[in-house]
Amino acid sequence: MTRMAVQLPIHKGQEKNLRALPFAELCLALLIVLFSWTGMASAQSIAFFPLLDLSEDPNGTNGPLTEKVRQELLNREKTLIPAEEIMNFLVRNRIRTLGRLTSYQTSLIRKELGADLVLQGTVCQVDEGDTPLLSLNLQLSRTSDDQIIWAKTEHLYYSDLTSLLGLEDPHNLEDLYEPFFTSLFATLPESSDLGGKAIDTLNIDTVIISPNYLRPGEKVSCKVKMHNLLNEEAIQPQLVLSVSGQEYPLILDEEGYYLQTSWPAEQEAGFYPITLKASWPSGIVQQGVVGSYSVDVQEAGVELHLIGTEHDGEILFSDKLLIIPKLLEPEPITRWEITVTDEEEEAIVIMAEPGHVPRRITWQGKTSLGSIAPPGNYWITFKVWDRAQRESSAEAAVQFRPDGPEILVEVTQDEERVTVDLDNIVNLPLIFWWAKFYGEDGNLLKLVQGSELPVSIELEGSSDPEYKIQCLLTARDILGNQTQKNIPNLFKLAESEADFEDISIETEWIEEF
Questions:
Q1: Which end of the chain offers a freer environment for a tag, N or C, measured as fewer CB atoms within 10 Å?
Q2: In CATH terms, is domain 407-512 a member of 2.60.40.10?
Q3: Alpha-carbon distance 207 to 204, whole Å?
Q4: 3-state secondary structure of 128
Q5: Measured between alpha carbons, how far is 333 from 133 in angstroms, rounded to an integer?
Q6: Computed from CA positions of residues 100, 103, 108, 113, in that sequence, does the dihedral angle turn out positive or negative?
Q7: Domain 302-400 belongs to what architecture?
């Protein structure tokens, strides 16, 4: 049998009172003190760092979402290091890159802030418009040994919450918050075993790992700078980096500033910690995790939806085309690019931006120089690059038809009648057309209207060679393009003397690109 003595915290003045209690009451008092002490010891402090938002810049932050996550954690009775202390820590230690901390920085968090856990996150996607979208990635790790104990990516789009009748449908980003954070924090551990072995910092000043996200087989480089290089005449340890069971010796660079090495990344996807080992001739081995990197084997994937007018299986537009890209696998995106190429494979539009994928893009049929593109067929290509610079793309075809309908007018006559034949030259359906015919005195002779062409219209003829019939013709196609023609004298047209004018082509352009 093993006997264990436990000394509980007892304040002055309580010892006498406890001794005076009966045995049963004494046991109850001890249990109350024990549970109260255990509850105080289980409160674990969390250092929550600002969320990395790549849409701003490679080291950008998202203040409003950071504050929202912070409030959600406080509502769940989590003990957080004050935000002001977090910012002072970042400034004091010159930490400019968020979303990833070295083991040395993690040890400083434990030493300077007294935090048990570190919570970091990245904004994958966010949209505050009429169709809100929110995607976050969070990662919780211990400061004692820099081990990740919880990580989750949550994605919510407004369409996930829409109903058939539109009851309580989300209209802004705040409408997504309650279901989003309920799901995000559903698996967040209430407490964690903090018994991990404390990190031995090994007097490390700076660790540079490049890149932090990469593809299988790509070269990983690591540079380590010590606070003070060891005296060359003194006994020095052998320094190696250990990753996935493989060891890579550190060699001093030519400038004598960094210890460096490199190796090929693993073939399997995952998160790989890097451990620095110092082996002394005495047999003592010191080690600590100095950083990590992630291997990405899967593309984010993207699909492209064009919203225009569909005709014969093709998408057409005349003034505005909505382009909606969507990630197939939500993850942080470093940059995106959209190009529009013509039938001769010449790029007429190129637009690229850093950060997450936009909710939608509107093309108004203009080139990057601001001029109206000629009518024709175009290809739209949308590309994204993830943190490992893995490229995904999608493309779609569209027809740009900004011109109004082309109506062929042919006139034949004899002494008794005049026949006017109308036909639609362009293979694009009409919404409507109408033709008005006026005599010399201005009286309306006939009004004909419809939605389909060709058609033949008969009017009363005249033997008077000076007799005139005026025609006003209007037609609008399914894209909204409209044509109006004024033919002052149909008889002149019958004599092959073209004498008519286009009144206007109603097409409106709104600058977007």
A1: N
A2: yes
A3: 8
A4: coil
A5: 15
A6: positive
A7: Sandwich (2.60)
